[in-house]
Amino acid sequence: MSDPYDVIIVGGGPGGYVGAIRAAQLGLKVACVEKRGALGGTCLNVGCIPSKALLQSSHHYESASHEFAAHGVKTGKVTVDLKTMMGRKEKVVEDLTKGIEFLFKKNKIDYIVGEGTIISADSVGVTPEDGKKQILKTESIIIATGSDVAPLPGADIDEKKIVSSTGALALKKVPRSMVVVGGGVIGLELGSVWRRLGATVTVVEFLDNILPGMDAEVVKQMTRTLKKQGIKFKLKTKVASAKTAKDGVTLSVEPRDGGNAEEVKADVVLVAIGRRPYTDGLGLDTVGVAMDDRGFITVDHDFQTNVPGIYAIGDVIGGAMLAHKAEEEGVAVAELIAGQSGHVNYDAIPGVVYTWPEVATLGKTEEQLKEDGTAYTVGKFPFSANSRARCIADSEGFVKVLADAGTDKVLGVHIVGPAAGDLIQEAVSVMEFGGSAEDIARTCHAHPGLSEAVKEAALAVGARAIHM
Prior knowledge:
Elements: E1 5-10, H1 14-25, E2 30-34, H2 41-46, H3 48-66, H4 82-106, E3 110-113, E4 115-120, E5 123-127, E6 134-143, E7 147-149, E8 162-163, H5 165-168, E9 177-181, H6 185-196, E10 200-204, H7 216-229, E11 232-234, E12 237-245, E13 248-255, E14 262-266, E15 268-271, E16 275-277, H8 284-287, E17 310-312, H9 323-337, E18 351-353, E19 358-363, H10 366-372, E20 376-382, H11 387-391, E21 398-404, E22 410-417, H12 420-432, H13 437-441, H14 452-461
Parallel strand pairs: 1-2, 1-6, 2-3, 6-17, 8-15, 9-10, 9-15, 10-11
Antiparallel strand pairs: 4-5, 5-6, 7-16, 12-13, 13-14, 18-19, 19-22, 20-21, 21-22
Helix pairs in contact: 1-9, 3-4, 3-6
Protein backbone atom coordinates (compact mmCIF):
# COMPACT_ATOMS: atom_id res chain seq x y z
CA MET A 1 0.00 0.00 0.00
CA SER A 2 1.38 3.39 -1.04
CA ASP A 3 1.51 6.58 1.01
CA PRO A 4 -1.94 8.22 0.94
CA TYR A 5 -2.82 10.65 -1.82
CA ASP A 6 -4.62 13.93 -1.37
CA VAL A 7 -6.77 13.20 -4.43
CA ILE A 8 -7.37 10.14 -6.59
CA ILE A 9 -9.25 10.76 -9.83
CA VAL A 10 -10.98 7.80 -11.45
CA GLY A 11 -11.06 8.51 -15.17
CA GLY A 12 -8.50 10.22 -17.40
CA GLY A 13 -10.81 12.06 -19.80
CA PRO A 14 -11.04 15.86 -20.20
CA GLY A 15 -12.56 16.39 -16.75
CA GLY A 16 -10.27 13.91 -15.02
CA TYR A 17 -6.92 14.86 -16.49
CA VAL A 18 -7.56 18.61 -16.29
CA GLY A 19 -8.72 18.23 -12.68
CA ALA A 20 -5.59 16.22 -11.92
CA ILE A 21 -3.30 18.89 -13.37
CA ARG A 22 -5.06 21.71 -11.50
CA ALA A 23 -4.94 19.78 -8.21
CA ALA A 24 -1.22 19.15 -8.69
CA GLN A 25 -0.65 22.84 -9.45
CA LEU A 26 -2.24 23.60 -6.08
CA GLY A 27 0.29 21.39 -4.31
CA LEU A 28 -1.82 18.27 -3.80
CA LYS A 29 -0.48 14.73 -4.21
CA VAL A 30 -2.51 13.31 -7.10
CA ALA A 31 -3.10 10.00 -8.83
CA CYS A 32 -5.23 9.40 -11.91
CA VAL A 33 -6.61 5.92 -12.56
CA GLU A 34 -7.53 5.14 -16.17
CA LYS A 35 -8.31 1.68 -17.57
CA ARG A 36 -8.18 2.57 -21.28
CA GLY A 37 -4.39 2.64 -21.35
CA ALA A 38 -4.50 6.05 -23.03
CA LEU A 39 -5.35 9.36 -21.43
CA GLY A 40 -7.87 11.79 -22.90
CA GLY A 41 -11.00 9.68 -22.50
CA THR A 42 -13.66 9.20 -25.15
CA CYS A 43 -13.13 12.75 -26.41
CA LEU A 44 -9.51 12.36 -27.41
CA ASN A 45 -9.45 8.67 -28.31
CA VAL A 46 -12.77 7.92 -30.01
CA GLY A 47 -14.74 11.16 -29.98
CA CYS A 48 -14.11 14.88 -30.41
CA ILE A 49 -10.54 14.74 -31.69
CA PRO A 50 -10.61 11.91 -34.26
CA SER A 51 -13.97 13.12 -35.57
CA LYS A 52 -12.61 16.64 -36.09
CA ALA A 53 -9.55 15.22 -37.84
CA LEU A 54 -11.80 13.32 -40.26
CA LEU A 55 -14.10 16.31 -40.67
CA GLN A 56 -11.11 18.42 -41.71
CA SER A 57 -9.74 15.79 -44.10
CA SER A 58 -13.12 15.13 -45.70
CA HIS A 59 -13.72 18.89 -46.02
CA HIS A 60 -10.43 19.21 -47.93
CA TYR A 61 -11.51 16.38 -50.22
CA GLU A 62 -14.89 17.97 -50.91
CA SER A 63 -13.31 21.37 -51.50
CA ALA A 64 -10.79 19.94 -53.94
CA SER A 65 -13.49 17.97 -55.74
CA HIS A 66 -16.15 20.65 -56.04
CA GLU A 67 -14.93 24.10 -54.99
CA PHE A 68 -11.34 24.70 -56.10
CA ALA A 69 -12.28 25.24 -59.76
CA ALA A 70 -14.29 28.35 -58.89
CA HIS A 71 -11.10 29.82 -57.42
CA GLY A 72 -9.16 29.08 -60.59
CA VAL A 73 -7.41 26.04 -59.12
CA LYS A 74 -7.40 23.05 -61.50
CA THR A 75 -6.87 19.70 -59.80
CA GLY A 76 -8.05 17.02 -62.21
CA LYS A 77 -9.65 13.89 -60.78
CA VAL A 78 -9.49 13.78 -56.97
CA THR A 79 -9.55 10.44 -55.15
CA VAL A 80 -9.76 9.35 -51.52
CA ASP A 81 -6.88 7.49 -49.85
CA LEU A 82 -8.83 6.36 -46.79
CA LYS A 83 -5.90 4.50 -45.26
CA THR A 84 -3.76 7.65 -45.23
CA MET A 85 -6.68 9.71 -43.95
CA MET A 86 -7.24 7.29 -41.07
CA GLY A 87 -3.51 7.17 -40.38
CA ARG A 88 -3.38 10.94 -40.03
CA LYS A 89 -6.33 10.83 -37.63
CA GLU A 90 -4.60 8.19 -35.50
CA LYS A 91 -1.36 10.20 -35.45
CA VAL A 92 -3.23 13.28 -34.19
CA VAL A 93 -4.78 11.20 -31.39
CA GLU A 94 -1.46 9.55 -30.49
CA ASP A 95 0.42 12.86 -30.31
CA LEU A 96 -2.20 14.48 -28.09
CA THR A 97 -2.38 11.45 -25.78
CA LYS A 98 1.41 11.50 -25.35
CA GLY A 99 1.12 15.22 -24.68
CA ILE A 100 -1.16 14.59 -21.69
CA GLU A 101 1.24 11.94 -20.36
CA PHE A 102 4.02 14.54 -20.59
CA LEU A 103 1.90 17.02 -18.63
CA PHE A 104 1.32 14.38 -15.95
CA LYS A 105 5.05 13.81 -15.60
CA LYS A 106 5.70 17.55 -15.56
CA ASN A 107 3.19 18.02 -12.74
CA LYS A 108 4.31 14.88 -10.85
CA ILE A 109 0.94 13.13 -11.18
CA ASP A 110 0.90 9.35 -10.78
CA TYR A 111 -0.75 7.82 -13.85
CA ILE A 112 -2.04 4.37 -12.93
CA VAL A 113 -3.36 2.13 -15.70
CA GLY A 114 -6.11 -0.20 -14.54
CA GLU A 115 -9.77 -0.46 -13.64
CA GLY A 116 -10.62 1.62 -10.61
CA THR A 117 -13.16 0.55 -7.99
CA ILE A 118 -14.18 2.69 -5.04
CA ILE A 119 -13.89 0.56 -1.90
CA SER A 120 -14.63 3.30 0.62
CA ALA A 121 -14.49 7.09 0.91
CA ASP A 122 -10.72 6.86 1.37
CA SER A 123 -9.76 3.80 -0.69
CA VAL A 124 -9.61 2.98 -4.40
CA GLY A 125 -8.83 -0.49 -5.69
CA VAL A 126 -6.99 -0.72 -9.02
CA THR A 127 -6.99 -3.87 -11.11
CA PRO A 128 -4.53 -3.75 -14.01
CA GLU A 129 -5.11 -5.74 -17.17
CA ASP A 130 -2.12 -7.88 -16.18
CA GLY A 131 -0.87 -7.96 -12.64
CA LYS A 132 -1.92 -7.80 -9.05
CA LYS A 133 -4.70 -5.62 -7.67
CA GLN A 134 -3.56 -2.77 -5.43
CA ILE A 135 -5.37 -0.57 -2.95
CA LEU A 136 -4.65 3.17 -2.87
CA LYS A 137 -5.49 5.40 0.10
CA THR A 138 -6.61 8.98 -0.34
CA GLU A 139 -8.23 11.96 1.34
CA SER A 140 -10.60 12.65 -1.58
CA ILE A 141 -11.91 10.79 -4.64
CA ILE A 142 -13.15 12.39 -7.85
CA ILE A 143 -15.28 10.27 -10.18
CA ALA A 144 -14.69 11.38 -13.78
CA THR A 145 -15.60 8.26 -15.74
CA GLY A 146 -17.63 10.03 -18.41
CA SER A 147 -20.28 8.40 -20.55
CA ASP A 148 -20.86 5.53 -22.94
CA VAL A 149 -22.93 5.06 -26.09
CA ALA A 150 -26.66 4.75 -25.44
CA PRO A 151 -27.88 1.48 -26.98
CA LEU A 152 -30.74 1.24 -29.46
CA PRO A 153 -33.14 -1.61 -28.65
CA GLY A 154 -33.34 -4.03 -31.53
CA ALA A 155 -30.07 -2.91 -33.12
CA ASP A 156 -27.07 -4.65 -31.57
CA ILE A 157 -23.86 -2.74 -32.17
CA ASP A 158 -21.13 -4.96 -33.65
CA GLU A 159 -18.85 -2.06 -34.76
CA LYS A 160 -18.79 -3.54 -38.28
CA LYS A 161 -22.17 -3.05 -39.89
CA ILE A 162 -24.08 -1.53 -36.97
CA VAL A 163 -21.62 0.89 -35.44
CA SER A 164 -21.37 3.42 -32.66
CA SER A 165 -19.34 6.60 -33.08
CA THR A 166 -16.27 4.48 -32.27
CA GLY A 167 -16.83 2.17 -35.24
CA ALA A 168 -17.83 5.04 -37.52
CA LEU A 169 -14.39 6.58 -36.94
CA ALA A 170 -12.60 3.42 -38.07
CA LEU A 171 -14.42 2.09 -41.14
CA LYS A 172 -12.09 0.26 -43.54
CA LYS A 173 -13.82 1.56 -46.66
CA VAL A 174 -16.31 4.23 -47.65
CA PRO A 175 -19.78 2.67 -47.50
CA ARG A 176 -22.10 3.14 -50.47
CA SER A 177 -24.90 3.97 -48.05
CA MET A 178 -25.21 4.84 -44.38
CA VAL A 179 -28.21 5.29 -42.12
CA VAL A 180 -27.59 7.49 -39.10
CA VAL A 181 -30.03 6.87 -36.25
CA GLY A 182 -30.11 10.16 -34.35
CA GLY A 183 -30.02 13.72 -35.65
CA GLY A 184 -27.89 15.22 -32.89
CA VAL A 185 -24.33 16.54 -32.98
CA ILE A 186 -22.53 13.18 -33.28
CA GLY A 187 -24.84 11.84 -35.97
CA LEU A 188 -24.65 14.96 -38.13
CA GLU A 189 -20.88 15.33 -37.83
CA LEU A 190 -20.07 11.72 -38.70
CA GLY A 191 -22.82 11.61 -41.28
CA SER A 192 -21.19 14.64 -42.90
CA VAL A 193 -17.78 12.92 -42.98
CA TRP A 194 -19.04 9.87 -44.86
CA ARG A 195 -21.38 11.87 -47.10
CA ARG A 196 -18.44 13.99 -48.25
CA LEU A 197 -16.40 10.87 -48.96
CA GLY A 198 -19.12 9.40 -51.17
CA ALA A 199 -21.74 7.62 -49.06
CA THR A 200 -25.47 8.21 -49.46
CA VAL A 201 -26.53 9.28 -45.97
CA THR A 202 -30.01 9.13 -44.45
CA VAL A 203 -30.68 10.44 -40.93
CA VAL A 204 -33.53 8.84 -38.97
CA GLU A 205 -34.67 11.04 -36.06
CA PHE A 206 -37.40 10.22 -33.53
CA LEU A 207 -38.08 13.87 -32.67
CA ASP A 208 -39.69 16.57 -34.82
CA ASN A 209 -36.37 18.11 -35.81
CA ILE A 210 -32.63 17.57 -35.87
CA LEU A 211 -30.35 19.27 -33.29
CA PRO A 212 -32.86 19.03 -30.42
CA GLY A 213 -32.76 21.91 -27.96
CA MET A 214 -31.17 24.39 -30.34
CA ASP A 215 -32.73 27.64 -31.50
CA ALA A 216 -35.50 26.91 -34.05
CA GLU A 217 -34.03 29.28 -36.63
CA VAL A 218 -30.69 27.49 -36.41
CA VAL A 219 -32.41 24.13 -36.83
CA LYS A 220 -34.35 25.37 -39.87
CA GLN A 221 -31.19 26.74 -41.52
CA MET A 222 -29.14 23.59 -40.89
CA THR A 223 -31.90 21.25 -42.07
CA ARG A 224 -32.11 23.17 -45.33
CA THR A 225 -28.32 23.34 -45.72
CA LEU A 226 -27.66 19.67 -45.01
CA LYS A 227 -30.44 18.63 -47.38
CA LYS A 228 -28.82 20.78 -50.06
CA GLN A 229 -25.55 18.96 -49.39
CA GLY A 230 -27.28 15.64 -50.02
CA ILE A 231 -28.21 14.28 -46.60
CA LYS A 232 -31.73 12.84 -46.44
CA PHE A 233 -33.91 13.05 -43.36
CA LYS A 234 -36.69 10.88 -41.94
CA LEU A 235 -38.05 12.88 -39.00
CA LYS A 236 -40.65 11.75 -36.46
CA THR A 237 -39.50 8.23 -37.27
CA LYS A 238 -38.50 5.33 -35.02
CA VAL A 239 -36.45 2.20 -35.65
CA ALA A 240 -38.43 -0.94 -34.87
CA SER A 241 -35.78 -3.54 -35.70
CA ALA A 242 -32.51 -4.19 -37.50
CA LYS A 243 -31.39 -7.27 -39.42
CA THR A 244 -27.76 -7.74 -40.39
CA ALA A 245 -26.66 -9.72 -43.44
CA LYS A 246 -23.48 -10.05 -45.48
CA ASP A 247 -24.48 -7.23 -47.78
CA GLY A 248 -25.52 -4.76 -45.07
CA VAL A 249 -28.34 -3.94 -42.68
CA THR A 250 -32.08 -3.76 -43.17
CA LEU A 251 -33.92 -1.47 -40.78
CA SER A 252 -37.63 -1.57 -40.16
CA VAL A 253 -38.70 2.02 -39.50
CA GLU A 254 -42.14 3.40 -38.79
CA PRO A 255 -43.76 6.79 -38.19
CA ARG A 256 -43.43 7.82 -34.55
CA ASP A 257 -47.09 8.84 -34.34
CA GLY A 258 -48.47 5.75 -36.05
CA GLY A 259 -48.54 4.42 -39.56
CA ASN A 260 -47.10 1.76 -41.81
CA ALA A 261 -43.56 0.47 -41.35
CA GLU A 262 -41.06 0.49 -44.20
CA GLU A 263 -37.67 -1.07 -44.83
CA VAL A 264 -34.53 1.00 -45.19
CA LYS A 265 -31.34 -0.71 -46.33
CA ALA A 266 -27.77 0.46 -45.83
CA ASP A 267 -24.22 -0.86 -45.91
CA VAL A 268 -23.62 0.63 -42.47
CA VAL A 269 -25.92 1.87 -39.70
CA LEU A 270 -24.57 4.39 -37.20
CA VAL A 271 -26.36 4.46 -33.84
CA ALA A 272 -26.03 7.97 -32.42
CA ILE A 273 -29.04 8.44 -30.15
CA GLY A 274 -27.12 9.86 -27.20
CA ARG A 275 -24.89 8.81 -24.34
CA ARG A 276 -25.42 7.47 -20.83
CA PRO A 277 -23.31 7.86 -17.67
CA TYR A 278 -20.56 5.30 -17.25
CA THR A 279 -20.68 3.91 -13.72
CA ASP A 280 -20.31 0.18 -14.34
CA GLY A 281 -17.97 -1.58 -11.92
CA LEU A 282 -17.18 1.52 -9.87
CA GLY A 283 -18.60 0.08 -6.65
CA LEU A 284 -20.98 2.98 -6.12
CA ASP A 285 -23.69 0.74 -4.64
CA THR A 286 -21.21 -0.64 -2.14
CA VAL A 287 -20.20 2.78 -0.81
CA GLY A 288 -23.72 4.20 -1.11
CA VAL A 289 -23.20 6.96 -3.69
CA ALA A 290 -26.63 8.24 -4.73
CA MET A 291 -27.73 8.31 -8.37
CA ASP A 292 -30.91 9.54 -10.04
CA ASP A 293 -33.35 7.38 -11.98
CA ARG A 294 -31.31 7.81 -15.20
CA GLY A 295 -28.07 6.67 -13.58
CA PHE A 296 -26.42 10.08 -13.18
CA ILE A 297 -24.51 10.67 -9.95
CA THR A 298 -26.11 13.37 -7.82
CA VAL A 299 -23.83 16.06 -6.41
CA ASP A 300 -24.18 19.29 -4.44
CA HIS A 301 -22.99 22.74 -5.56
CA ASP A 302 -19.43 21.74 -4.59
CA PHE A 303 -19.59 18.58 -6.76
CA GLN A 304 -19.62 16.39 -3.66
CA THR A 305 -21.80 13.30 -3.57
CA ASN A 306 -23.85 12.26 -0.56
CA VAL A 307 -20.74 10.40 0.66
CA PRO A 308 -18.31 12.95 2.18
CA GLY A 309 -14.97 12.95 0.40
CA ILE A 310 -16.31 11.50 -2.86
CA TYR A 311 -16.87 13.97 -5.69
CA ALA A 312 -18.06 13.61 -9.29
CA ILE A 313 -17.74 15.74 -12.44
CA GLY A 314 -18.38 15.67 -16.19
CA ASP A 315 -20.79 13.51 -18.14
CA VAL A 316 -21.39 11.24 -15.16
CA ILE A 317 -23.29 14.03 -13.34
CA GLY A 318 -25.38 15.05 -16.35
CA GLY A 319 -26.00 18.47 -17.82
CA ALA A 320 -24.32 19.36 -21.11
CA MET A 321 -22.22 16.36 -22.14
CA LEU A 322 -19.33 18.47 -23.41
CA ALA A 323 -15.59 18.05 -22.90
CA HIS A 324 -15.09 21.72 -22.05
CA LYS A 325 -17.88 21.63 -19.46
CA ALA A 326 -16.12 18.66 -17.82
CA GLU A 327 -12.80 20.54 -17.88
CA GLU A 328 -14.31 23.54 -16.11
CA GLU A 329 -15.77 21.22 -13.46
CA GLY A 330 -12.40 19.48 -13.09
CA VAL A 331 -10.70 22.79 -12.35
CA ALA A 332 -13.49 23.90 -9.99
CA VAL A 333 -13.55 20.71 -7.91
CA ALA A 334 -9.75 20.70 -7.59
CA GLU A 335 -9.83 24.28 -6.32
CA LEU A 336 -12.65 23.50 -3.89
CA ILE A 337 -10.79 20.49 -2.47
CA ALA A 338 -7.72 22.72 -2.07
CA GLY A 339 -9.75 25.22 -0.07
CA GLN A 340 -10.30 27.75 -2.82
CA SER A 341 -13.59 28.90 -4.36
CA GLY A 342 -13.96 27.27 -7.75
CA HIS A 343 -17.21 27.61 -9.70
CA VAL A 344 -18.71 26.99 -13.14
CA ASN A 345 -21.05 29.42 -14.90
CA TYR A 346 -23.41 27.05 -16.68
CA ASP A 347 -25.13 29.96 -18.44
CA ALA A 348 -21.98 30.68 -20.46
CA ILE A 349 -20.99 27.29 -21.87
CA PRO A 350 -20.94 27.19 -25.68
CA GLY A 351 -21.95 24.24 -27.81
CA VAL A 352 -20.53 23.67 -31.29
CA VAL A 353 -21.45 21.38 -34.18
CA TYR A 354 -18.48 20.96 -36.54
CA THR A 355 -20.43 20.37 -39.72
CA TRP A 356 -19.96 22.86 -42.56
CA PRO A 357 -21.18 25.43 -42.02
CA GLU A 358 -20.48 25.15 -38.34
CA VAL A 359 -23.11 25.77 -35.69
CA ALA A 360 -22.37 27.49 -32.38
CA THR A 361 -24.90 28.19 -29.68
CA LEU A 362 -24.72 29.93 -26.33
CA GLY A 363 -27.19 30.82 -23.61
CA LYS A 364 -30.93 31.00 -24.15
CA THR A 365 -32.80 30.27 -27.37
CA GLU A 366 -35.76 32.35 -28.50
CA GLU A 367 -38.07 29.49 -27.56
CA GLN A 368 -36.70 29.37 -24.02
CA LEU A 369 -37.03 33.14 -23.57
CA LYS A 370 -40.63 33.01 -24.73
CA GLU A 371 -41.35 30.12 -22.38
CA ASP A 372 -39.74 32.03 -19.49
CA GLY A 373 -41.75 35.14 -20.30
CA THR A 374 -38.59 37.22 -20.78
CA ALA A 375 -38.90 40.34 -22.90
CA TYR A 376 -36.04 40.35 -25.40
CA THR A 377 -34.72 41.99 -28.54
CA VAL A 378 -33.25 40.19 -31.55
CA GLY A 379 -30.36 41.31 -33.71
CA LYS A 380 -29.54 39.21 -36.76
CA PHE A 381 -26.97 39.55 -39.52
CA PRO A 382 -26.33 37.24 -42.52
CA PHE A 383 -22.86 36.11 -43.59
CA SER A 384 -23.93 36.88 -47.17
CA ALA A 385 -23.42 40.55 -46.24
CA ASN A 386 -20.00 39.96 -44.64
CA SER A 387 -16.97 40.89 -46.77
CA ARG A 388 -14.67 38.17 -45.48
CA ALA A 389 -17.30 35.46 -45.92
CA ARG A 390 -17.74 36.56 -49.51
CA CYS A 391 -13.99 36.49 -50.12
CA ILE A 392 -13.63 32.93 -48.86
CA ALA A 393 -16.85 31.78 -50.60
CA ASP A 394 -18.45 30.64 -47.34
CA SER A 395 -21.34 33.02 -46.93
CA GLU A 396 -24.13 30.72 -45.79
CA GLY A 397 -25.68 31.31 -42.37
CA PHE A 398 -26.10 34.12 -39.88
CA VAL A 399 -25.35 35.49 -36.42
CA LYS A 400 -28.24 36.07 -34.03
CA VAL A 401 -27.90 38.00 -30.77
CA LEU A 402 -30.64 37.89 -28.13
CA ALA A 403 -30.60 40.69 -25.54
CA ASP A 404 -32.80 41.63 -22.61
CA ALA A 405 -35.31 44.24 -23.78
CA GLY A 406 -34.85 46.33 -20.65
CA THR A 407 -31.15 46.06 -19.77
CA ASP A 408 -29.63 45.05 -23.15
CA LYS A 409 -27.75 42.24 -21.36
CA VAL A 410 -26.79 39.47 -23.78
CA LEU A 411 -28.94 36.41 -23.06
CA GLY A 412 -28.00 34.18 -25.99
CA VAL A 413 -26.02 34.08 -29.22
CA HIS A 414 -26.55 31.61 -32.06
CA ILE A 415 -24.34 31.30 -35.14
CA VAL A 416 -24.55 29.25 -38.32
CA GLY A 417 -21.61 29.93 -40.58
CA PRO A 418 -17.87 29.72 -41.21
CA ALA A 419 -15.74 29.39 -38.05
CA ALA A 420 -18.84 29.68 -35.85
CA GLY A 421 -17.11 27.68 -33.12
CA ASP A 422 -14.39 30.32 -32.87
CA LEU A 423 -16.63 33.36 -33.33
CA ILE A 424 -18.87 32.32 -30.43
CA GLN A 425 -16.03 32.82 -27.95
CA GLU A 426 -16.36 36.61 -28.08
CA ALA A 427 -19.96 36.21 -26.95
CA VAL A 428 -18.92 33.78 -24.20
CA SER A 429 -16.56 36.41 -22.76
CA VAL A 430 -19.21 39.13 -22.97
CA MET A 431 -21.79 36.94 -21.22
CA GLU A 432 -19.25 35.88 -18.57
CA PHE A 433 -18.77 39.54 -17.67
CA GLY A 434 -22.50 40.29 -17.81
CA GLY A 435 -22.03 42.45 -20.89
CA SER A 436 -24.59 43.95 -23.25
CA ALA A 437 -25.21 43.91 -26.98
CA GLU A 438 -24.06 47.53 -26.92
CA ASP A 439 -20.69 46.39 -25.54
CA ILE A 440 -20.18 44.19 -28.61
CA ALA A 441 -21.55 46.84 -30.95
CA ARG A 442 -19.13 49.52 -29.70
CA THR A 443 -16.07 47.23 -29.80
CA CYS A 444 -13.84 47.69 -32.86
CA HIS A 445 -13.64 44.55 -35.01
CA ALA A 446 -10.93 44.03 -37.65
CA HIS A 447 -11.93 44.41 -41.30
CA PRO A 448 -12.40 42.36 -43.33
CA GLY A 449 -13.17 39.72 -40.74
CA LEU A 450 -15.84 37.15 -40.04
CA SER A 451 -16.18 38.61 -36.54
CA GLU A 452 -17.71 41.74 -38.07
CA ALA A 453 -20.89 39.68 -38.49
CA VAL A 454 -21.06 39.38 -34.69
CA LYS A 455 -20.69 43.15 -34.33
CA GLU A 456 -23.35 43.79 -36.97
CA ALA A 457 -25.79 41.42 -35.25
CA ALA A 458 -25.19 43.30 -32.00
CA LEU A 459 -25.79 46.58 -33.80
CA ALA A 460 -28.99 45.10 -35.21
CA VAL A 461 -30.29 44.62 -31.66
CA GLY A 462 -30.63 48.42 -31.66
CA ALA A 463 -31.87 48.48 -35.27
CA ARG A 464 -28.70 50.13 -36.50
CA ALA A 465 -26.75 47.51 -38.45
CA ILE A 466 -24.50 49.30 -40.95
CA HIS A 467 -24.17 46.77 -43.76
CA MET A 468 -27.72 45.48 -43.99
